[in-house]
UniProtKB/TrEMBL annotation:
Source organism (scientific name): Caenorhabditis nigoni
Gene: Cni-Y48G1C.9
Pfam entry (one): LSM
Cited Gene3D superfamilies: 2.30.30.100
Entries under InterPro entries matching the protein: LSM_dom_sf, Sm_dom_euk/arc, snRNP_SmB/NAA38-like
Region annotated Disordered, chain positions: 1-22
Protein name: Sm domain-containing protein
Bias (Basic and acidic residues) ranges: 1-10
Source organism, top-level taxon: Eukaryota
């Protein structure tokens, strides 16, 4: 190449976004909502679902772990948690937390 001239090695392509399938749209409805997931070993994980993959593994944000559903028992904060579908026994949608007034 001559000095002063550069060549873009990656050409931009005009691509239109693909139409989302009905399954994809349905899965998108689950993202951003809070769930309580009961695992096969007896634990309960609560958190906001932020991602899933083609194998139905799920990632939760602001997740916590407990060994019982009772609120008076100790809770361990996890942050983000990935749960494989093979360990899910039951999954329940939690109500949206009430907004606090200032």
């Amino acid at each position: 190449m001559s000095e002063g001239r550069s060549r873009d090695l990656i050409e931009s392509q005009a691509t239109e976004p693909a139409e989302k399938s009905e399954v994809h749209k349905k899965v998108q409805e689950y993202i951003g909502k809070r769930y309580e997931v009961q695992l096969t070993d007896g634990r309960f994980i609560r958190g906001t679902m932020i991602a899933t993959d083609k194998d139905a593994n799920m990632v939760f944000n602001k997740a916590d772990e407990r060994w019982t559903v009772k609120a008076d028992r100790p809770v361990r904060f996890l942050g983000q948690a990935m749960i494989s579908k093979k360990y899910v026994k039951k999954m329940c949608l939690l109500p949206d937390p009430k907004e606090t007034e200032i």
